[in-house]
Amino acid sequence: MAKASAIANANIALVKYWGKRNKELMLPQTGSISMTTEGLNAHTTVEFDPKYREDILILNGKEYGKGDEEYDDYVGLFLKVVREKYPEKAKDLKVKIVSNNNFPTAAGLASSAAGFAALAAAVNEALKLGLREKELSMLARRGSGSATRSIHAGFVEWHRGENEDGSDCYAEQLFPPEHWPEFRLVIAVTTKKDKKVKSRAGMSQSVANSPYYKAWRDDVIPKHIETIRKALGEKDFKALGEAAETNALMMHAVAIATTPPVIYWNAGTMDIVHAVMDWRDQGLECYFTIDGGPQVKVLCLEKDSKEIAKRIRGFPNIEDIIITRPGQGVKITKEHLF
Ligand code: DP6
Predict the structure, then answer these.
(1) Residues lining ligand 1, CB < 6 A?
(2) Residues near 197 by Cβ (< 8 Å), separated by ≥ 6?
(3) Between β-strands 56-59 and 95-101, what pairing exists: parallel, antiparallel or unpaired?
(4) 92, CA 20 to 30 Å: which among 138, 156, 217, 275?
């Protein structure tokens, strides 16, 4: 039976990925570094079987198919890659995919990262492709760039690579979760609504016309990758927080300066950004990062996480607060969703 299930956690970038150099192969302009979270996951079951006449995709209880963006631009493209790469296993088989996230979809909580990491692992298992972690991270990348990092546990670097065919573009673990178990992200969910501009479209526009793109790619990223790798290794929270916060602000500066502008922040986002800077001035150790959505992720250590969550709760525009720590990589599970 060609049925398998996998669970993958979302990851939050400390050095952001913003822009591709090859859209078809999903090759990034730059490298990036992330932390895989614990407990913010996608659980995905796939079944390849002749009984299916069409691909069936059910995401969080809603069915999608040809003509829907979720299928055409994301899962459908990924399945095309799988069928082209492994024709003898998958070319003539349709698949049913059911996937559930336990966190808000498409609102800057990297749901596509968890989703495609789980999907790649489930496909690998169901079709017995025999891919190990490195190859799996390359397959997940074809679904969504950031998914390449969610294959691994803990702190992860996605290598840009140099080759045009993408053969040296993959993610690998820098440090396991046990390296820094006290590290926390307190996520302030400022809205659960879908974002208006998907990261894919936003970054493509930024590469095309943001006047700051070149500086981001050539100056900012190489410096931040070095700083963050070193800060993670030394568990230097201050150095890490400062670089991660600056990196997020610079990514958003690139995005905001794009035509048409890509602005992910809302009022709640700004409340928390200012609060984090105030709290830091008062001696509370914390920094923020923001992805392609309005949520603010506050970097802190375990000792301060409850206090930070309590303070965030006091703001009017906050819909939810999630505390997460360095988490596990993708896992195969016997728990099928159908
Ligand atoms: C801002 O991985 O969602 O979260 O590769 O087009 O699917 P695609 O984009 P995606 O972009 C994530 C962008 C980001 C930064 C990051 O996670 O590094």
Answers:
(1) 13, 16-18, 26, 32, 110, 112-113, 144-146, 199-200, 291-292
(2) 262, 264, 292
(3) parallel
(4) 138
The CA–CA distances, whole Å, from 51 to 94, 98, 125 equal 8, 16, 19
DSSP letters along 233-254, please?
HHT-HHHHHHHHHHHHHHHHHH
Q: What is the mean pLDDT of each run of 10 residues along the chain (338 residues)?
A: 94 98 98 96 97 94 91 94 94 94 65 94 98 97 98 98 97 98 96 81 97 98 98 98 98 98 95 98 97 95 98 92 96 98
Residue with the smallest CA separation from ligand 1 atom 5 is 145
CA of 136 to the centre of ligand 1 (A): 18
Q: Which domains does the chain carry?
A: 2-177 (3.30.230.10), 183-324 (3.30.70.890)
Neighbours of 269 (CB within 10 A): 23
pTM, whole model, 2 decimals? 0.97
> How far is 43 from 5, CA to CA, in rounded Å?
7
Closest atom of ligand 1 relative to the 146 alpha carbon:
2
Pocket probe for ligand 1: among 116, 146, 265, the residue whose CB has the most ligand atoms within 8 Å is 146
